Amino acid sequence: MTGYALAAAEHPRGALSLELKSVNSRFLDLQFRVAEELRALEPLLREAITARVARGKVECRLSFAPGAAGAQSLDPAALDSLRQIAAQAQRAFPKAGALRLGDVLRWPGVLAGAAPDAEELRSAVAALAGRAVAELCAAREREGAKLAALLAERAAGMRQRLAEVVPLVPEANAAYQVRLAQRLREALGTADDERLRAELAVFAVKTDVDEELQRLGTHIGEVERTLARGGAAGKRLDFLAQELNREANTLAAKAATREIADCALELKLLIEQLREQVQNIE
To answer: How far apart are CA 103 and CA 39, in angstroms?
Structure first.
């Protein structure tokens, strides 16, 4: 399921910003973009997300912008050390150019700032994560409600197709048995009733779709109950979609008439549409 959340907070030494993006995925896939100085807080973010999110590809970005109280300054000791190193290098390579200001500022340790208190920062990030995850889940829930309505519509369509098939089966089987009996008499050149009854019994077993129709009705009802119950239902609905597809395939294979085969094909189309949407549900 897709969703987006952005939360920001002021810290005594700067500004914190947490961005969460979620896209569809069958499993939970977390990706973190965290500044190096905040890397120790990644487990806290992971715990906050996994407590509320079970499926989806989630990208988490945490940044910290130092404020006036946490502004960086030049470290005199690091500057002296760099000056000595530069002088030695200049003597070794007289024709080399002098250090530029950008080179000096990028040198490790030259810029120093008052590091924020670890516990204060952890507490601030925990509160920020709680807000951002709640906002992300709210966005996902809104999308989930829309998807649930769409899936309920597909389930209603399947139930309608099933209602159309049921009355067709007895009449279709009876008409097909009459045609089959006539063809058997022509092929066998006899009116042996015992042989005809045996062949028709085999046909009846092969074309009996009562069990498939009952199981289809049961699975559709379970889909409707799962949607009405709400909550995390993606994996259960995915399983039901597989079972529905299995029964629809069998119904199509046993169809005695074109009308039943057409209904089975429409059922399979609706089931496939349901299955595709189920991949997006937690």
So the answer is: 26
Token pair 């009705």 is found at 217
For 1-13, what is each residue's pLDDT tens digit?
A: 788 999 998 866 6
What does the alpha-carbon distance between residue 277 and residue 151 come to, in Å, rounded to a whole number? 8
**Contact present, 280 and 235 (Cβ < 8 Å):** no
68-79 residue pLDDT tens: 444 566 777 878
Tell me 97's DSSP state: P
Please name each of the domains of the chain with its CATH number: 3-69+118-139 (3.30.230.10), 72-113 (no CATH), 145-278 (no CATH)
Separation between Cα atoms, residue 230 and residue 210, nearest integer Å: 31
Say how far apart CA 67 and CA 94 lie, in whole Å: 41
Q: Could you tell me which residue, 192 or 61, shows the higher pLDDT?
A: 61
pLDDT score at 208:
66
